[in-house]
Protein: Elongation factor 1 gamma
Amino acid sequence: MNHNKLYTYKGGPRSIGILAVAHAIDFDIEVVETNPQVGLSEEYLKLNKLGKTPTFVGSDGTVLTECMAIALHVASQDPESKMLGPTHMDFIHIVSWMSLCNTDVVKRMAAWIMPLFGVAPYSPEGVEMAKKQTAQVIQILEDHLQDRRYLVADCLTLADPFCAGLVSFGFANVFDKEWRAHFPCFTAWYEMVTSLAMYRAVMPNTVMAETALGPPKPSMRSDFTADD
Ligand SMILES: N[C@@H](CCC(=O)N[C@@H](CS)C(=O)NCC(=O)O)C(=O)O
Structure:
């Protein structure tokens, strides 16, 4: 019998929400360890022509790339679940938060973090600019969460684990104690989501940076440019 499969790597921020929601609705997915940084097979490149992760292959042969589409497809497998929101407009807001986090938030965080990892060209000005741009977009979430526990409606939806997964590499690397003090509602929301059983089933330990990553050592720098 064919299984549903998700090609991704351990802790991949774009896969955490997909796997958390699959766990919540009891939808079986086998994780196939696939890491573009390590190398990809010819077979995988036929499934995902850009050589990115995640990719979903359903037991019925459905192939999906793009983490948002995969997450929406998986969440819709249980028609009784409220993961896609109680109303149609809630559903639209879920997609809106997912898109903001998967594009602007991830891009800005990556522009801050990748140079510090030494996998994108480093300049102090570039990192400072990316840090400011990250704060600007996270402020949108902070303001929204001032008087809310969840991103959409009054209940947990796909938007929460999906967006928390995306920002996990920010919290682990640069959203340190001092930074978090400026975003208390966003941080409290992240702590709430990452402590949920569905999230813990995928990521048992949540790493919160004590101090942000510093500049890379000269030997770590390279010309590789991540495109997100
Ligand atoms: N548009 C894709 C982007 C996927 C993506 O960039 N995934 C990252 C891992 S989180 C990746 O595969 N990076 C490797 C690369 O860009 O070569 C999506 O939303 O799923």
Strands lie at 5-8, 30-33, 55-57, 63-65. DSSP finds nine helices and four strands in the chain.
